[in-house]
């Protein structure tokens, strides 16, 4: 068996002589001593007895990078090909492969790994090592596996220049590209850390990236969350200190009433890293981005990959998940309605329930509270109903929605999507009441404490106030830009504008976060319907609820007057001034208005422009686009289209978020298409729309949902927070007791 341990220098240094040397250096050159000591301590504490195990395809640079890291850390460097396999076999790797063939080679290679042992070393695996399960299980126990993720086109170019003509698996009829694609599944299975490596990146830079990634892996303290109101109230800051991703997913809302944000901001991708994702699939992009946003101590990369595949693997009707379609001129549609419930909410709510189930303690039951203005309801019900049966027993959900403030099809969806652990409750009020009531319930320590003590049940939130809801939205905004690059519409680095129908400010905030992570978005166009409070705010800096009443429109998902995620954006542009954010939102709560300082309004207007759309213009846009292109917009996308037409300057492409499928708003669509008589039965309306043979076709999931009877009914309650609390307690008793 091979045993390689940290070597000792030939010249022995006794403890006394070492102390004497240190003392002389410290007295003569104190600055140099501190620097050397910090360097030694950092290197040795980084590695300890663990190995750094470099993994990746042939040509990824594992050997060269390993040597550089070994020099930096002053530790042994082991190349599996040169130092283990060839030593064991007394022949070159290529000779062995030619001698025994592909399958036997993998087995012999795996046996050699099983006999190998090392500690405190940098180890460069062969490109085929990860294909042997037992061998990799053995290696993984000894250290941190780092995947050097290099785009296939770069690997193929490197191997060609190196004149490599034989790798494991290459045979007549099997291309090098096919082999590299096949091996990805094995690399993804084993790595702890992924390091993106572009085409021209120097080995020294890759080595630094590896060391930075290992430091991040070993120190979860680097990625904590704070409240947008930290330091802004009399509440002790320690009450919300040191929150990690798993904490904020579970807790949802901070104890001081603020929203959680990353204390050190979001990770930044280099241009080369983004360009390496141009040819990636949507799920591959999602994993890379989310790995950077979620610390592996909260969710390991392998588990995260499993969750992402579950969320997006089979639940979306389009293989591209979030395709970008050219509409007209320089306008492109980001189609976000191919999920099971036909709205952009599916991107977060097919993923978040699984993140939540993984992060929560196994010793407590959880009731998730949601307020919806329409699309969130069916999406969250569907998402939580897809949990494993064991998770359903300890996780339940109640969805509050305005009983008369959603479309008939949306209501039918919410009723039909009810399951044994997920229920809908109609409230005789509007969305703003539902959202405010949930916030009040969360901050009522007497009630939440009572539920914990009496029923062993904690409350959690799945609204966009939950940080985890925003992350999947960052992914699709980044992916849309990369798709335009991939299609040859733009080159990477060229700017685009974004136009989003906006109510609660979450979707447009996620686009802003995508820019912070390195996506070149120039301007954000915030599109409102007749509930145009955000338009007024962005133009004037005055957020004023006084005298405003919510108007029911054809685009109910943006029928919102209190935009929760605006708080996160203001916290960002105010340089994380929690005291100011607290003051603004306390004033909004108590007096119904606030006004931004002039400098903050200037910052806001550098990013955002805003406009609003009347009901008549919304319907006219649907009709116009259909008659000229054969494409049917939903009502929310039509709002964005109208505003984009008015505000874009046509100097760069504009991506319009198409947030829902038109099938969900059939009566309004039929009216826009100038159908005289409209049957009130939702199923009949969809059948009528399907006769138009329009693009996109009728949503596959909606027809199936409306054909189901579901539970057939739902609870309805008065607009009273105490009544909502009663329903919450009753549902807990029925499900968990």
Automatic annotation (TrEMBL):
Listed Pfam families: SKI, Thr_synth_N
GO molecular function: pyridoxal phosphate binding
Annotated PANTHER family: THREONINE SYNTHASE-LIKE 1
Keywords of this entry: Amino-acid biosynthesis, Pyridoxal phosphate
Gene3D superfamilies: 3.40.50.1100, P-loop containing nucleotide triphosphate hydrolases, Threonine synthase, N-terminal domain
Stretches assigned to the Threonine synthase N-terminal domain: 239-312
Annotated SUPFAM superfamilies: P-loop containing nucleoside triphosphate hydrolases, Tryptophan synthase beta subunit-like PLP-dependent enzymes
The name this protein goes by in its record: THNS1 protein
